[in-house]
Amino acid sequence: MDQVFKALTIAGSDSGGGAGIQADLKTFQMLEVYGMSAITAVTAQNTLGVHGIYDIPIEGIAKQIESVISDIGVDALKTGMLSQPEVIELVADLVTKHKLSKLVVDPVMIAKGGAALLAEHAQDAMRKRLLPLAALVTPNIPEAEVIIGMEISSLDTMKEAAVRIVEQFGSAAAIIKGGHRIGDPTDVLYDGKQFHFFTAERYETRHTHGTGCTFSAAITAELAKGKTLTEAVQTAKTFITLAIRHELGIGGGHGPTNHWAYWREAQTHSGLQAKEQGKS
Fold first, then answer.
1. 40 and 11 Cβ atoms separated by less than 8 Å
2. Which residue pairs from 265-273 have beta carbons closer than 8 angstroms and sit at least 24 positions apart in sequence?
3. pLDDT of 2-60, one tens digit each?
4. Helical H runs in the chain?
5. How far apart are CA 6 and CA 224, in angstroms?
6. Euclidean distance between CA atoms 271 and 183, whole angstroms
7. Which own/partner contact pairs does 1-5 have at CB distance under 8 Å and 24+ positions apart?
8. Are the C-beta atoms of residues 243 and 236 closer than 8 Å to each other?
9. Which residues are catalytic?
């Protein structure tokens, strides 16, 4: 068979299946990348909110990561919920030890329902230890405001925030996601040299749980395949836009996105192409 590309997610488990480890693995699978995981915490949650967070012992997290790296290997990896400073320190140490250069950091801080997922005392550890190792940091606007301590209210301040994350914390690149702004959601990517803008149509829906996890997982999957950063972000933007557009409509609160949508769209497109070719 063709080469198997491998991606690792280091994040929390979402019992509702819409975000965290579950969303990441679904995304990897849909993009034809072999997904692996290291669970940092188990959450009890559904579309109505987070009802409990149970941290995994540090030793257990370390063994998960080391087991995967030592046997299977990692082409790219991403982080999600890292609620304890010790977990951030551990991940930074292992990324450095194993020289893992394709690291996507999704600075998960607040759940859709408002629950805090990154303690304040862990934020400094992320800034000092993890961000300098990131090939890409993927905050939404509220997360970027916390990271750099400034208000973001316009495209210009989004650009400034992306530059500051790269220049102040040493990340190779940063993308500020624009979903929290009014109008079409434009994401601003700064790759250390220039800006790139990614815009899609906005769909009004309450079913957006796990969008950040899914977006960063799609980027990670594409980087694992050897795609450039801009190619990876463009695919991820298409993936999450379709996942939101074709909502599943499940749950009584912030429902999950549709991880099947991108693959089904591709299959439909392939089917139409084959049908047209058959007519010619």
1. yes
2. none
3. 899 999 999 999 999 999 999 999 999 999 999 999 999 999 999 999 899 999 999 99
4. 20-30, 58-71, 85-97, 120-125, 141-148, 155-169, 211-224, 229-245, 261-279
5. 6
6. 34
7. 4/34, 5/32, 5/33, 5/34, 5/75, 5/221, 5/224, 5/225, 5/226
8. no
9. 177, 208, 210-213
How many residues are listed for the chain in this entry?
280
d(CA 136, CA 166) in angstroms, rounded, equals 9
Tell me the one-letter amino acid at 134: A
Residue 145 has pLDDT above 60, yes or no: yes
Inter-CA distances, 251 with 21, 241, 258, Å:
19, 20, 13
At 269, list the tokens.
């497109």
Is residue 11 a contact partner of residue 4, using CB atoms and an 8 Å limit?
no
Lookup: tokens for 104 = 């996507």
What is the phi-psi region of residue 186: left when phi exceeds 0, alpha when psi lies from -120 to 50, beta otherwise? Answer: beta
What are the structure tokens assigned to 65, written together?
Answer: 């990561």
- pTM attached to this predicted model: 0.92
Query: 106 near 213, Cβ under 8 Å?
Result: yes
Tokens of 80: 């999600």
d(CA 242, CA 247): 9
